[in-house]
C-alpha cells in the first residue's frame, strides 16, 4: 500500500515523464486541469526531486555517505513540518553507469529553527536524506543516483571516486582544505579555484554558510555583533543553507566533503538548541569512528588519519570528546596511516589581531595529547586570512610539533583579517580575548622567549612562518610516508599560480610517537 500523501505527489512525476513525449502533451494538459481543480498541485513539479546532493566519507575507503534534500523548506509565521516518512531514501549505485546494480536505503529527517519571539519567522527544512553505501572497492569510480523510485523522483546519475586503501604507499592525490566559506562572489572564486585543482577530497573547517549574518526576513549584514543588538536572540536565515547546498552540489556531488563545526554554526534557537542545521544537514562518520557526537569524529583517507575536533563543546580531560580522542589516537597504527592530521575551527597559533589567542583554553587542554601522539599537521579556519607556522609545541619551536595552517580565507562576507597582533597598537587586552561561547580564560602573558612578560610579540612571532591576508584555499598532497606538499592558492591569481608552497617532512626516526600498548604487545610477541 502506498502512502496517500505520496500518491498526491506521484501525479506531477507522471507529468514529468510525459514531458519527454510531446505527443502526450494533450493528455498532460487534461491532467493538470483535473489536478488543479482538486487543488493537489504542489508548488513545483519537481517537489520531491533530490537537490543539494553531496558525498561524504565514512571512516574507511569501503564506505561513503550520500546526502540530499527533497521537498520545499518553509519560512514564515505558519509553517508545518513535512513528514520525512513520505519520501524514501534510496541510492542506486554501481561501477557501470548503465547498470546501477546495488541499492542502499538510509534514513531521513527534517529540522526546525524556531523563534518564539514577536517578529521573527520560523523555518522548517525540506526532507534531509542520508544513506550509507558499504562494501565499496578502494580507488574506484562509482556511479549513483538518489531519491525515491516509488514516486519517480530519482536524481541524475553522478559519480565519485572512493579513497585509496590505507597503507604507507597509498594516498589521495590532492586534499583541498578551506574554511569560512560563506556564499559570496569571493566564495565563487574560491570554489572555482578548488575545482580547477581537481581534489579527491575537500575539508571544510567550519563557518559554512554564515546564515547567522541574516535576519529571519532575509536581510543581510556584514557584521555579526552590530545587527542583532536589539533582537532577543541571535537569529539566522536558514534558507541561506539551502542556497549554499545548491551552489555546492556541483563540487560535492562528485568530491567527498568533510565538515567540522565553526562558531557560525551555533545558530541558537528556542529550547536552548544549537548547531541543528549543521548536525542535520551533513552526514558524519561519527558512529563509524566511535564518537557519539556530530562535533568530533575521525576517518582514514589512504595512509592519512584525519581527526576532526570540536572547539565549541567541552574538550578538557573530563569531557567525552577528550576521552574519545585518547581512544581514537590510541587506535591509530602509524604503519598503516603514517600521517596524522587534526583539524578544528579556531587556531591556536595565529598571529593576527582578530581572534588572537581566543582558543587558548582548548590549547592548554589538548595540545599535550596531540603532541604525544605525533600529530603532523593541524588545519584551522576562523581567522579570515592565511598563516602557516613552523613546527611548534607549547609556544616553543619543536621539530616534533605539528605544522599549524590557518585557511580561514574561503571568502565569506565578513571582513578579511588584516592587522597582526604584533603591530603597534594592535595587541588586544588579554581579558577581551576569550570567546564568549567557549568560556574560560587561559591566555596569560608569555613566561619565556622574546615576548616574555608580554601578551603579544613585537615582531612576527617565531612560530609564524608565513602570513598573508588574501582569500584562497590550500591543497595537501601526501607523496609518501615522510613527505607531503602543501600549496596555498590565492583567488586573485590565475589558476595554477602558487601563493605559498612547502614540503612538510615527517621525521619518525627523531620523533618517536606514542603507540598504543596493544600495538607494543603485538610487536613484542
Ligand atoms: C515559532 O515557533 C515557536 C515555537 O514553537 C512558537 O512559539 C512561535 O509562535 C512561532 N512563531 C511564529 C511566528 O510562528
Ligand atoms: C571579492 O570579490 C570581489 C568581487 O568579485 C572582488 O572585487 C574582491 O577583490 C574580492 N576580494 C578578495 C579579497 O579577493
Ligand atoms: C527586515 O527587518 C529589518 C529589521 O526589522 C528591516 O530593517 C528590514 O527592512 C527588513 N527587510 C525586509 C526585506 O523586510
Ligand atoms: C572541564 O570542563 C567542565 C565542564 O565545562 C568543567 O566543569 C571542569 O571544571 C573542567 N575541568 C578542567 C580540569 O578544566
Ligand atoms: C607549557 O609552557 C608553560 C610555560 O612555560 C608551562 O607552565 C607548562 O607546563 C607547559 N605545558 C606543557 C604541557 O608542557
Ligand atoms: C601582560 O602583557 C601586557 C602587554 O602585552 C601588559 O600590559 C600586562 O601588564 C601584562 N600582564 C602581566 C600580569 O604581566
Ligand atoms: C618522498 O617524496 C619526496 C617528494 O616527492 C621525495 O623527494 C623522496 O625521495 C621520497 N622519499 C621516499 C622514501 O620515497
Ligand atoms: Fe569562525
From TrEMBL:
Keywords, A to Z, come to: Glycoprotein, Hydrolase, Iron, Membrane, Metal-binding, Secreted, Signal, Transmembrane, Transmembrane helix, Zinc
Recorded catalytic activity of this chain's protein: a phosphate monoester + H2O = an alcohol + phosphate
Chief location: secreted
- The keyword Ligase appears for this protein: no
- Which CDD domains did the record assign? MPP_PAPs
Under InterPro entries, the record lists: Calcineurin-like_PHP, Metallo-depent_PP-like, MPP_PAP, PAPs-like, PAPs_C, PAPs_N, Purple_acid_Pase-like_N
Subunit relationships: Homodimer.
Family affiliation: Belongs to the metallophosphoesterase superfamily. Purple acid phosphatase family.
What is the name of the protein in this document? Purple acid phosphatase
The organism is Quillaja saponaria
Amino acid at each position: 500500500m502506498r502512502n496517500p500523501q505520496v500518491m498526491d505527489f506521484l501525479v506531477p512525476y507522471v507529468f514529468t515523464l510525459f514531458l519527454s513525449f510531446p505527443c502526450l502533451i494533450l493528455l498532460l494538459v487534461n491532467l493538470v486541469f483535473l489536478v488543479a481543480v482538486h487543488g493537489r498541485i504542489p508548488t513545483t513539479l519537481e517537489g520531491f526531486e533530490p537537490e543539494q546532493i553531496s558525498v561524504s566519507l565514512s571512516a574507511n575507503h569501503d564506505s561513503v555517505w550520500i546526502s540530499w534534500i527533497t521537498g520545499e523548506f518553509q519560512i514564515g509565521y505558519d509553517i508545518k513540518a513535512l513528514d520525512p516518512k513520505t519520501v524514501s531514501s534510496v541510492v542506486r549505485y554501481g561501477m557501470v553507469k548503465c547498470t546501477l546494480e546495488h541499492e542502499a536505503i538510509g534514513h531521513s529527517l527534517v529540522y526546525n529553527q524556531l523563534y518564539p519571539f514577536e517578529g521573527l519567522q520560523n523555518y522548517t527544512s525540506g526532507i534531509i536524506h542520508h544513506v550509507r553505501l558499504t562494501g565499496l572497492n578502494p580507488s574506484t569510480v562509482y556511479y549513483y543516483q538518489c531519491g525515491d523510485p516509488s514516486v519517480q523522483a530519482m536524481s541524475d546519475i553522478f559519480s565519485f571516486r572512493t579513497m585509496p586503501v590505507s597503507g604507507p604507499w597509498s594516498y589521495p592525490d590532492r586534499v583541498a582544505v578551506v574554511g569560512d566559506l560563506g556564499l559570496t562572489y569571493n566564495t565563487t572564486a574560491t570554489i572555482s579555484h578548488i575545482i580547477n585543482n581537481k581534489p579527491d577530497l575537500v575539508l571544510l573547517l567550519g563557518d559554512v554558510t554564515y546564515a547567522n549574518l541574516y535576519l529571519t526576513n532575509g536581510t543581510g549584514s556584514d557584521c555579526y555583533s552590530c545587527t542583532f543588538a536589539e533582537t532577543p536572540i541571535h537569529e539566522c536565515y536558514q534558507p541561506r543553507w539551502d542556497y549554499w547546498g545548491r551552489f555546492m552540489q556541483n563540487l560535492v556531488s562528485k568530491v567527498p566533503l568533510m565538515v567540522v563545526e565553526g562558531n557560525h554554526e551555533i545558530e541558537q534557537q528556542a529550547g536552548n538548541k544549537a548547531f541543528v542545521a549543521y548536525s542535520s544537514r551533513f552526514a558524519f562518520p561519527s558512529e563509524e569512528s566511535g564518537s557519539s557526537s556530530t562535533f568530533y569524529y575521525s576517518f582514514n583517507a589512504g595512509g592519512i588519519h584525519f581527526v576532526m575536533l570540536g572547539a565549541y563543546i567541552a574538550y578538557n580531560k573530563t569531557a567525552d570528546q577528550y576521552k574519545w580522542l585518547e581512544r581514537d589516537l590510541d587506535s591509530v597504527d602509524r604503519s598503516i596511516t603514517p600521517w596524522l592530521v587534526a583539524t578544528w575551527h579556531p587556531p591556536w597559533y595565529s598571529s593576527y589581531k582578530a581572534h588572537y589567542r581566543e582558543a587558548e583554553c582548548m590549547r592548554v587542554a589538548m595540545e599535550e595529547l596531540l603532541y604525544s601522539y605525533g600529530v603532523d599537521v593541524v588545519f584551522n579556519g576562523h581567522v579570515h586570512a592565511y598563516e602557516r607556522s613552523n613546527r611548534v609545541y607549547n609556544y616553543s619551536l619543536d621539530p616534533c610539533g605539528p605544522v599549524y595552517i590557518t585557511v580561514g580565507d574561503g571568502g565569506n562576507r565578513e571582513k578579511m583579517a588584516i592587522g597582526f597582533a604584533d603591530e603597534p597598537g594592535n595587541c588586544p587586552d588579554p581579558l577581551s580575548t576569550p570567546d564568549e561561547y567557549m568560556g574560560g580564560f587561559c591566555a596569560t602573558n608569555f613566561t619565556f622567549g622574546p615576548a616574555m612578560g608580554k601578551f603579544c610579540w613585537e615582531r612576527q612571532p617565531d612560530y609564524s612562518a608565513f602570513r598573508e591576508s588574501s582569500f584562497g584555499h590550500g591543497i595537501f598532497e601526501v607523496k609518501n610516508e615522510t613527505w607531503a606538499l602543501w600549496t596555498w592558492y590565492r583567488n586573485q591569481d590565475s589558476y595554477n599560480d602558487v601563493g605559498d608552497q612547502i614540503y612538510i617532512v615527517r621525521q619518525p626516526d627523531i620523533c618517536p610517537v606514542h603507540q598504543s600498548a596493544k600495538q607494543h604487545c603485538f610487536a613484542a610477541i
